[in-house]
Design brief:
By secondary structure, the chain is an all-beta fold. The protein folds into two domains: about 100 residues, Immunoglobulins (Immunoglobulin-like, Sandwich); about 230 residues, no CATH class. Helices cover about 0% and strands about 40% of the residues. Strands 8, 9, 10, 11, 12, 19, 20 and 21 form an eight-stranded antiparallel β-sheet that branches. Strand 3 and strand 4 form a beta hairpin. The longest helix is centred in the middle third of the chain and has 7 residues.
Length: about 350
């Protein structure tokens, strides 16, 4: 007659992640199950076979209990397992729905993550000639990284088989950036080409203009989804791309073709699109100032100045709504609060 035995199972989860120097608060990637096999009287059973099976992935792991009836099943991916114990002269026993799940946050330091930056930089400098000083710089670049944060960071895909999906364009990647600045002494007044005598010389002479111009391409963003089917806390779910290409429409009501994407359905999965797939609106800005010095005496100089920040008053738009489940998906609903500002000032130098 076969005897009965019981399993005392203790679940302990561990975390395995790699990162640049700095802590990462992580979800479970691997865990382990440890326990003790005993008979009905509480006596330990050495040499019993313990089999762990994940019914969804069919991952299996088999160990034997030691002389103290203990066993350990390491390196198990997160999920639910069936634990079956068999031993000579005993009936087999199966315990279902033994969960390997997150129990605590862990910080881990490593040098696995990296950032790659490549750029072509051009600069133009024109020293004062004919009253004009000009300086301009253009940068063509590309930045690839695993996460857009610094120090204590998190990643979008926190499951080892999907870890490679974190490597993508950085959130601050700006391929095209043009910056220019100038100072121009206007050609009016005494000794200049125009209006160099009479009342016109007095009114128009001595003025200088300066300003800066910038044109910057938009920043990348990720198209996300939130169906709830992923069931992986600490991870992000992206949308499925259902068209071969994504058309950029450019309007506030629909910046990209929203029908190019759909929420992930069916089995739990991350979605077919990756991190920082699309790029938001760019920024163009012009600042201008105008000033003139009035020599009151040899000691005192009065300067009149006026300046316009963001002279063109072109809206600096935010990225469109990026969640495919949102009613405002692909709509631009925000802008920087940096409307045109004009200031006047007087400055007395002595």
């Amino acid at each position: 007659m076969r005897r009965f035995f019981r399993i005392t199972t203790i679940l302990v989860c561990v975390f395995t992640l790699s990162l640049n120097p700095g802590p990462l608060e992580a979800q479970v990637l691997y865990g382990f199950i440890v326990g003790v096999v005993q008979d009905a009287t509480g006596s330990v059973i050495p040499g019993a076979t313990v089999l762990a099976v994940n019914p969804e992935t069919r991952q299996e792991r088999t160990v034997a209990t030691d002389g103290s009836g203990r066993y350990s099943l390491p390196n198990l991916a997160a999920g639910n397992y069936e634990i079956t114990v068999t031993a000579s002269s005993f009936r087999s026993l199966t315990r279902r729905s033994v969960s390997v799940y997150r129990t605590a946050a862990t910080s881990y330091w490593n040098g696995q993550f990296s950032t790659n930056y490549h750029a072509l930089q051009l600069a133009i400098n024109r020293r004062a000639a004919a009253g004009l000083t000009l300086k301009a710089a253009y940068t063509y670049s590309k930045v690839i990284n695993f996460t857009g944060d610094d120090g204590g960071v998190g990643v979008m895909f926190n499951w080892e088989p999907a870890f490679c999906r974190n490597r993508a364009l950085a959130g601050y990647d700006i391929p095209h950036m043009l910056q220019a600045g100038y100072v121009y002494e206007l050609p009016f007044g005494k000794g200049k080409n125009m209006a160099n005598s009479g009342a016109a010389s007095v009114l128009l002479g001595g003025w200088q203009a300066s300003g800066t111009f910038s044109a910057v391409q938009g920043r990348p963003f990720t198209v996300t989804a939130s169906t709830g089917s992923l069931d992986a806390p600490g991870n992000s779910q992206t949308a499925d791309q259902v068209k071969p290409g994504v058309e950029k429409i450019g309007s506030l009501a629909q910046f990209y073709d929203r029908t190019s994407f759909a929420a992930s359905t069916g089995a739990a999965r991350f979605g077919t699109t990756g991190r920082n797939l699309l790029r938001g609106p760019g920024i163009v800005n012009l600042d201008l100032s105008l000033f003139r010095n009035f020599n009151l005496t040899e000691r005192y100089i009065l300067q009149f100045r006026t300046g316009a920040a963001h002279l063109s008053n072109t809206p600096h738009l935010g990225n469109p709504s990026n969640n495919v489940n949102s009613g405002s998906f692909m709509q631009v609903t925000s802008a920087e609060n940096d409307q045109r500002t004009i200031r006047f000032g007087l400055r007395l130098q002595f």
